[in-house]
Amino acid sequence: YVEQVQERMYGFQIAVEFRKPEWLDGRHREGTLAFLRTRDIPYIAVDAPPGHATSMPAVHEVTSSKLAVVRFHGRNHDTWDLQGAPPNLRFRYDYPDTELGEWVPRIKEMERSAKEVHAIMNNNVVRSLQVAADGSRRPGAAISSA
Questions:
Q1: How do residues 100-134 score in pLDDT, each as one tens digit?
Q2: Cα separation of 61 and 114, whole Å?
Q3: Alpha carbons 143 and 105: distance in angstroms, whole number
Q4: Domain boundaries, the chain
Q5: pLDDT tens, 71-81?
Q6: Of 2 and 66, the one with more pLDDT
Q7: What number of other Cβ atoms are within 10 A of residue 86's Cβ?
Q8: Are 77 and 127 in contact (CB under 8 A)?
Q9: Are strands 44-47 and 67-72 parallel, antiparallel or unpaired?
């Protein structure tokens, strides 16, 4: 299916975010990432609450020299697996600076292999957007080493 999407979207950059943890478990991880690498398709690394049946493994590998993507869903353990929870509850999470800071070395590592690294906030807390836009975390800015 991913190959079909890439063919149909010729001329546009696609990226893939997996939603089933099995794609990146110990048995399938290398094959999944190799599939993306051989097609130069960016893998979307996910930050979400760990420890849930639907939580994605912490993988932040670069599969395309053009682009790497990190998507911050928030770490709201209380509503992550809540059946029928609307997005405004499921993704309501205010990232503390310490949790965002965990990603700085990972993103710096990703920058060594990809021309661009995009970080996307997929949560419903305005402060997260303000923090992301502040100082060295503003869109398009290089990450500060300080």
A1: 999 999 999 999 999 999 999 886 665 555 555 55
A2: 10
A3: 9
A4: 52-137
A5: 998 898 888 88
A6: 66
A7: 11
A8: no
A9: parallel
